[in-house]
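Attaching the record inline, Q. Sequence:
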Amino acid sequence: MSGGSRGIGLAIALRAALDGANVALLAKTAEPHPKLPGTIHTACEAIEQAGGRALAVVGDVRREQDIEAAVQRTVGAFGGIDACVNNASAIDLSPSVALPIKRFDLMQAINVRGTFLLARACVPYLAKGHNPHILTLSPPLNLNPRWAGDHLGYTLSKYGMSLCTLGLAQELRPTGIAANSLWPRTVIATAAVRNLGDSGAIDRCRTPEIMADASHAILTRPAADCSGNFFIDEDVLREEGVEDFDRYRAGTEEPALDLFLDDPPARP
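Structure, as predicted:
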């Protein structure tokens, strides 16, 4: 997994650890961040406490050599790779004229390049793995002009990740490797949301555990029959028989719809 020191990525790793999974994290957060709790080392401690085995690989998903080293260390430690989770992502919702090019480049490098490089590096080992999956945390390709118009730089980067899913699913279909995307129906309570400066934001969120449970459901489905999908967490869990979503509420208010989704579906 790219990232995973905190938030959704860590929740996904902890859910896998409950099954005794081996989890390798590639992340830069070797030292505590003043505004963001957790490091790659505290994440690995939590994974092992939850019942899994953890490998911390300090590195930058933008650097090909770091990704290659992470993949080799993972194979050396655990004997192979069964799932690749593209979790690392950078966000800046500034409009085009206000977005510093340095921030634009960062989003493209982490979100698009990082996703492409990590998936690409894992493919030879996934091809030998058990029920191999590539799971990318990116949205459906919604061509409503609103999303490009509101924050073009970020939209380009997230849709680039989704295009990786679309292309890899088709390209890798003969190998039996699944490639899917997963996106939350509602905003998720992460450190990034807390740092937005909106004191009521968390009250309109769901917890990262909803994404973790949805990820687990996807990654345990037969890869040969589950590829090329742009999953929404709530829809995945409804298919699994989940009806009570109040347990995922982070606050007291109705959870807010996330980016790139136009309207919530009507429910009976």
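The CA atoms of residues 57 and 186 lie 31 Å apart. The mean pLDDT is 94.

More tomorrow.
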